[in-house]
Design a protein that fits this description.
The protein is built from five helices and seven strands, in the order βαααβββαβαββ. The chain has a single domain, classed as 3-Layer(aba) Sandwich (Aminopeptidase). A seven-stranded mixed β-sheet has the order 1-2-3-4-5-7-6, sandwiched between helices. It is 29% helix and 34% strand. The longest helix is centred in the middle third of the chain and has 15 residues.
């Protein structure tokens, strides 16, 4: 199946809520905020407008099937570091969409002059870990019991990192 990759725009908010509603909660744990709430999407759009986040979506026939974001804090102590986030619909995993989105964000990170990129996920997300490792990321840390799902169960988060060329 083919897909189109483009920037995430305010007109996509309802589509993003529908996409997030179809994801398992476990997939959302690493984000820190629950994308199934309109206020979270609103804050995301505001951060895009303020230049803190570069966000892309992949869509098929007008339906969002994946999203990726590069989150930066150019005013902070770690202004040289960006965090990558990736979500792919369960029925679309393994089709190369995540890789396409991440490669596009790597180019954007390079254009921003970032020296280092990180990504966090739970250790059981083996497909995502393999994807990031295939793009030059390596495990840098494990945060034990760092996120708690709505059922009260705590999960570890691993941090993967990659140094950018010239970084």
């Amino acid at each position: 199946m083919s897909h189109t990759i483009r920037r995430f725009r305010p007109a996509d908010d309802a589509g993003m809520l529908a996409f997030a509603a179809g994801l398992p909660e476990h997939d959302l744990l690493f984000l820190g905020r629950d994308l199934r709430h309109p206020r979270v999407i609103e804050a995301w759009q505001q951060a895009i407008g303020e230049g803190w986040i570069d966000s892309l979506i992949a869509e098929d026939d007008g339906r969002i099937v994946a999203t990726a974001a590069l989150v930066r804090d150019p005013l902070g102590w770690s202004g040289h570091v960006g965090e990558l986030r990736l979500l792919v619909a369960t029925d679309r995993r393994g089709a190369g969409m995540g890789r396409d989105l991440l490669e596009a964000l790597l180019a954007i990170a390079g254009a921003h002059g970032l020296a280092k990129l990180t990504a966090t996920m739970t250790p059981d997300q083996v497909g995502s870990i393999a994807l990031f490792e295939g793009l030059g990321f390596a495990r840098e840390a494990c945060l034990a019991g760092h996120v708690r799902a709505s059922d009260g169960i705590a999960h570890d988060l691993i941090v993967l990192a990659r140094t950018m060329p010239g970084g």
